[in-house]
Design goal:
globular; seven-stranded mixed sheet; two-stranded antiparallel sheet; 230 residues; Spore Coat Polysaccharide Biosynthesis Protein SpsA, Chain A; binds cytidine-5'-monophosphate; 11 strands; alpha/beta
Length: 230
């Protein structure tokens, strides 16, 4: 039987990226002759998986208009919000005219341009029969400590600790309801946390460690290295 559900992608790209200390938001820094955001969007478009890609852009963003992908037939622009979760919800609302409750949506950070087709396929293969969804994640190889102002208070059991990556893949209707339910809640730092707060147990799928998020100045050189090797 063929799978009747559509796949949609959402890319929150409305952050300012203060930790980069750059003259522009990190998604507009140069990578491989284009911007980081364009390289990320191209990875999603070239996978051939998605009906459309909704990208959340800040309302006063002077960098997006004029980029080659502005106006691309498979890209839909949504107004960015105050926090990441607001930007994602804004993009889901723009897609809601055409998306069905049971469709899949993959949310992927603009600042992760090294996403491979292999990881997109792995996520989909592992989750497409699941009622909820899940996320790409990486095991932690370092010993992890909990700390307060007095010093180290404990050592975490790293068998139970994973680093959340993106894409995060969820049923469209469920994710939209979860983000609407917890709008403004500072604990919602990714899509999975909204589903977790609703009582669901999203799955994890081990992703490639080179799917890094550009956060600090040194990350751009690392992304260039991985991106060039792929
Ligand atoms: O700042 P951080 O790296 O956690 O942001 C993750 C992603 O969320 C980035 O792609 C950023 O552009 C996006 N974002 C957004 N709207 C906000 C804040 C962040 O789309 N208000």
């Amino acid at each position: 039987m063929t799978n009747p559900t559509n796949f949609w992608a959402v890319v929150p790209a409305a952050g300012v990226g203060k930790r980069m200390q750059a003259d522009r938001p990190k998604q507009y820094l140069p990578l491989g002759g284009k911007t980081v955001l364009e390289q990320t969007l191209l990875r999603l478009l070239q996978s051939g998986v998605f009906t459309a890609v909704a990208v959340a852009i800040a309302q006063d963003d002077p960098y997006w208009p004029g980029l080659e992908l502005d106006g691309h037939e498979q890209i839909i622009v949504a107004p960015g919000g105050k926090e990441r979760a607001d930007s994602v919800l804004s993009a889901l609302r723009v897609l809601a005219d055409n998306a069905q409750e049971q469709d899949w949506v993959l949310v992927h950070d603009a600042a992760r341009p090294c996403l491979t087709r292999m990881d997109i396929n792995l996520l989909i293969e592992n989750l497409q029969d699941d009622p909820i969804g899940g996320i790409l994640a990486a095991a932690s190889h370092d010993t992890l400590k909990s700390v307060d102002s007095t010093g180290i208070t404990g050592t975490l059991d790293r068998n139970h600790i994973w680093r959340a990556l993106t894409p995060q893949m969820f049923r469209f209707g469920l994710l939209k309801t979860a983000l609407e339910t917890f709008t403004g809640n500072p604990a919602i730092t990714d899509e999975s946390s909204a589903l977790e707060l609703m009582g669901f147990r999203p799955k994890i799928v081990e992703g490639r460690p080179d799917n890094i998020k550009i956060t600090r100045p040194e990350d751009l050189a690392l992304a260039e290295f991985f991106w060039g090797r792929q």
